[in-house]
Task: structure prediction
Amino acid sequence: MTNLTRRTWALAAAGTLAGAIGFARHARAQKQRLRLLLNTSLSGPVAFFLLAQDRGYLRDEGLDVAFDAGPGAAAMVPMVRDGAYEAGYGDISALIQRIARSAPGTGPVAVYTTFNVTPFTIAVPANSPVRTPKDLEGRRIVGHAGDAALLTFDLYARATGIDAAKVRVDGSMGGMGQAVVDMLRGGGADGVFGFVNTIIASAAPLGVDGRKDLRFLNWADHLPDMYGNTLFVTRGLLQREPQAVAGMVRAVNRGLADTVQDPQAAIASLLRHAPGSDRAVNLTRLQGTLASEMAHPEGARIGIGDMDDARLARLIAQIVEVKKLPRTPGVREVFDRSLLPPLAQRVRSLAR
Result:
């Protein structure tokens, strides 16, 4: 090889190496952008997402995630689709219904389920004559039209033997806190649909002590197979960018683990993103979520994020039957656990 040839080859090799380094730097700089729709406004129960962002866990995975507030855990589910939101955080019962109404293998898929206990409830006054679910017959219960508890009242009625036709379900509620106050004063409904911790937090600024002034008829007491909120993605995103989805799951899991260790840090992240938020109220909501919605005993066995296949299969079958859905999707079509972090990295300390 002549000196000129050697020099040409060396220059070419150096150029190739420099180009490769430059390409790698460019690839790192070009983060995968995702839009994630939350179930509700920025608040304590979703603060672990914000902590994951603030501590750089999403950035470490090459992701640039924008979080938007949603209209409710069930109402937001149809809004997650390619071309809009690639990911969402909402109610898995609503997700199952959407999947069952979609062609096989085309609907969204859950990838990380945080609520292993359903939070759905009906709040009644502590001194109310409504002591059991059957006592709801002949009563008026209010909630938002898209409230997940209202939308699954038929499942609750079936499980408890209520004649749903004898219950007046009113979906025209205004503010939740005011609805609770009106109920306690005797000028409103007989019960209010919602999440336990959301009802308590909404009514607290209006002088209501939810733990003393209210009693709760909880779905979890009669529908033990129900789960709650889950992180889910479009089928298209999972097929196109499985590594991005896996990275998002890892980052969110790290944010949740940090939140369990230090809830105040998560609330500090919330206040950075939503400066007008009430620290005390949101800390109470977050701590209530950790202590209730993430406290199923199975969490000690499989960790937060995963779901029990047999339990999920029973839930799917129950929803399909009660809602009279066109088909019964399989467990793997609803939930893909392949992207979960190892069990040792999942939260297992919240189980009661």
User: Anything to note?
Assistant: The chain has two domains: 33-117+226-345, 120-221. The longest strand covers residues 32-37. Strands lie at 32-37, 63-68, 87-91, 109-113, 120-125, 140-142, 168-170, 191-195, 214-218, 229-233. Residues 1-6, 8-14, 20-28 have pLDDT under 50 and may be disordered.
